[in-house]
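Tutorial, part two.
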Amino acid sequence: MLRGLARMTIQGPGILPGLLRLGLCAGVLAVCLAGAPVRADQPVAPTAPPVPVLSLDFERLFDDTLWGKRIAADMARDSAALNAENTRIADDLIAEEKSLTDRRAKLTPAAFRTEADAFDERATGIRAAQKAKAQSLTQTYEAARQAFFAASGPLMDEVLTRRHAVMVLDRRAIIRGLEAADITEELARLMDARLGAGPAEAQPTPDPAGNGGE
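Running the prediction step on this input gives:
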């Protein structure tokens, strides 16, 4: 009877104790793993998932690209030229005013008033013209910046697609974030490679009188 029970324990289907089956399976798995060589050139899966939200420092992008640097240089050059023109005009007006004051004793009150009113009117017109030039220069600069950022849009989309991200946020609005999410340098290199220094600058229209509004 004991032999029959032993035979049933060993041969009977489905009655092998669970722990014994588990031990046998673990042993087989260990043998299989030990026999499987690990290749040194086997690719390693990335340890971190793609970053869905990226950040961009727009001002640094402008400052670090060839196009942005060219716009800034143009603005500095034109501003310096306008400032020099304003200084020259102011010196001329001061000299003219002094001359009028020096001649006052030789003029009748009516004649002096006529010349003084004409001088004031002309000086006011010159100041208005120079102010308009400054405003036009500022508008030109802002338009160039807007064109720069508009041109960065399609290239930004390329980076979004390549990074498997869904949006780009202004870095100034982010309280805390990983450096891996910042695409400023990557986008700057892409813009330099694709767009260079940007479109050719439109040359300013020369002053027909050649006197800066005088």
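The longest strand covers residues 53-56. In part three we will examine how such features are distributed along the chain.
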